[in-house]
Design brief:
Number of helices: 13
Distance between the termini: 102 Å
Strand order of the largest sheet: 3-2-1-4-5-6
Order of helices and strands: HEHEHEHEHEHEHEEEEEHHHHHEEEH
Oligomer: single chain
Number of strands: 14
Structural class: alpha/beta
Mean pLDDT: 93
Shape: globular
Low-confidence stretches: none
Helix content: 40-55%
């Protein structure tokens, strides 16, 4: 009997040793798998400006690409802003961001574009008092033509580009035309700011948290002709998920004041702040890239300015804001949404403006 107890004890000890050894091997293998990711190189143009100053710390903190993704930030600005740009670099170093593996601050577009994986094009020529629309367009066409060439020659082959500077849609179109080797699906413009503004207006009106509202759409141009559409938007309520139109029961507000508030929000912020909406624009740029790279939540779409493929009757050849879902680094336009007469008119009006902008931009190239 005693012999059997000894044998049983030996078996238990062997089993415990085996389990402990197996656990150590598993932990070691997990440790090996938990190797730090390779840094992603992110370019921010116009980095010494208001939006750039708000944006670069968000990127360095992991807001754009996630809390475990190291980054190298390339910052580009014009020669007169070189000293301010160097000041931003000093601040990034002083902040000691754990994810930040390197900073380049330069006025040389070739150096700035070298090996870039993601380019956030914030720099552009703003419209000044007394300037004609064509004058602004001409300045931006020359800027984006030069930057397109540098990106095409020096950026990583899979580089994703987000244009923020206005006129964002047409700047993106020019960049696409002068960087033909960058896939058209890799060039987008920012309408996520307008999308977020629409979510914010709905959440305030319904007195719910903004995370409870989803699937608004910004159609068209990032301008005062854009069409913020809530016809497919939903809100979580205590009674379950409802259509925003049903929950609000105020079509008059949705078809008038809501639309104009979103369209004119940027101007309203400039009037109040005496400066542009840098904080919300930087946050929206992070949202745009994060969803594009890491994917949109299931059942949720976002708005992105992308090259039209003819969906919803929008002519190809312009960069137009559509509802999209993202998966594995690729965006796809949401298909098959019902478009009513009111929406059709608004969508066509903003498309018409984009065609006019395209014609104007091409006339500046002659």
């Amino acid at each position: 009997m005693e012999q059997e107890h000894i044998i049983l004890l030996q078996k238990i000890l062997v089993l415990l040793f085996s389990v402990t050894l197996f656990w150590k091997i598993i932990k070691h293998m997990c440790g090996l798998l938990n190797i730090e990711k390779e840094p992603v190189t992110v370019l921010v143009t116009g980095a010494a400006g208001q939006i750039g100053y708000a944006l670069v710390p968000m990127i360095a903190r992991g807001v754009m690409l996630g809390p475990d993704q190291p980054v190298i930030i390339h910052m580009l600005d014009i020669e007169p802003a070189a000293e301010a740009l160097n000041g931003v670099k000093m601040e990034l170093i002083d902040a000691a961001f754990p994810l930040l593996k390197g900073v380049v601050a330069t006025t040389d577009v070739v150096e700035a574009c070298q090996g870039v994986n993601i380019a956030v094009m914030v720099g552009g020529f703003p419209r000044k008092e007394g300037m004609e629309r064509k004058d602004v367009m001409s300045k931006n066409v020359s800027i984006y033509k030069a930057q397109a060439s540098a990106l095409e020659q020096h950026a990583a082959p899979d580089c994703k580009v987000l244009v923020v500077a206005n006129p964002a849609n047409t700047n993106a179109l020019i960049l696409k035309e002068f960087a033909p080797s960058i896939p058209e699906k890799n060039i987008t413009c920012l309408t996520r700011l307008d999308h977020n503004r629409a979510l914010g207006q709905i959440s305030e009106k319904l007195d719910v948290h903004v995370s409870e509202v989803k699937n608004v759409i910004i159609w068209g141009n990032h301008s005062s002709t854009q069409y913020p559409d809530v016809n497919h938007a939903t809100v979580k309520t205590t009674d379950g998920e409802k259509s925003v139109r049903v929950a609000l029961a105020n079509d008059n507000w949705l078809n008038t004041e809501f639309i104009t508030t979103v369209q004119q929000r940027g101007a309203a912020i400039i009037k109040a702040r005496k400066l542009s909406s840098a904080l919300s624009a930087a946050s929206a740029a992070c949202d745009h890239i994060r969803d594009w790279v890491l994917g949109t939540p299931k059942g949720t779409w976002v708005s992105m300015g992308v090259y039209s493929d003819g969906s919803y009757g929008i002519q190809p050849g312009i960069v137009y804001s559509f509802p999209v879902t993202c998966e594995k680094g690729q965006w796809s336009i949401v298909k098959g949404l019902k478009i009513d007469e009111f929406s059709r008119e608004k969508m066509d009006a903003t498309a018409k403006e984009l065609m006019e902008e395209k014609t104007l931009a091409h006339s500046c190239l002659v």
